[in-house]
Design a protein that fits this description.
The structure is a single chain. It contains 11 helices and 16 strands. It has 344 residues and is of the alpha/beta class. The N and C termini lie close together (9 Å). Bound molecules: zinc ion (2 copies).
Length: 344
Amino acid sequence: MQALVKTEKGVGHLRLLEMPEPRPGPGEVLVEVRASGICGTDVHVKNDTFPYWPPVILGHEFSGVVVELGAECRHYKLGDRVVGEPHTRHCGQCYLCRTGNVQICPEKRSPGWGIHGSMAKYLVMPELLLHGIPDSMDFDTAAVVEPTANAVHDVLERAGVVAGDFVVVLGPGPIGLLAALTARAAGAREVVIVGAPADAGLRLDKARELGFENVLNIGKDDVVETVMDLTGSVGADLVVECSGAPAAIAGCVDLIRKKGRICAIGLTGGRTVEFPWEKAAFKVADIHFCLSTSYTSWERAIHLMATGQIPAGEVITHRLPLSDWEKAFEEIETLRALKVILYP
Ligand SMILES: [Zn+2]
Ligand SMILES: [Zn+2]
């Protein structure tokens, strides 16, 4: 089968190669991939800025159909339409696994960087990490369940957004927009979306298209002043930081009210952040760091997407055959695309 493979360590080294079709072992199923989204993680693996074990097939944001069952599979059957949590190879025995946090087990090796991923015709997945998707959900949209589950886990389960909250989202990439849609689905009274001048075209336009009215550009707008105006000088209940930009991270404290929350999602790429610790202390801020997803966030994401409460499929801007992977990565890295779906 054709697969997009990171062949060795270093920058680049992506190639479309002929790879052997995998076989499911005990407790595993073979999934025929119908759609595979490109995640920031895939771009980081391409650019050598995320851990990975080459040679490895990229991709973990997939949807597909179960086409073969390994021994001891009991819950799924042939033809089932599925998505799957990328918490493969978690050990099941460490403190984190035993306390229900398999997503951050130190032994976890996910599809796309630790084991072969979904940018290929077939992918092997443990049955216990699958979720069924409703017939009404198309495969492209289903491939966006994974990043949506991240947004749901971070914004709902970690940062605890509640109805009536005033929310500010910094960084209007796919995760930022999904976080904004999630906050709105949870009943936020206002979601302000903030981008940089480079986001002015596609990303901020998409935010307006999704119905957000207060879409700000730090190159033109005074974000603190706008948020204070809109909240009667109280400040936001929650700031969701998805940009990873050190200046934006430091600025979160100015946007929240006293006892407000910061939901930290964006990664800085290892840059050091100068953070106004004392200011955060006097604001009695809660900061929630976020990584990966939970079982419940997948179920919530699937239901909220299926009912249209989170129109996650709207962040898809490009649909391309796997053979066009080079163009797909380029469109993402030059900010001309949001979510790109590849068809193996
Ligand atoms: Zn992802
Ligand atoms: Zn573990």
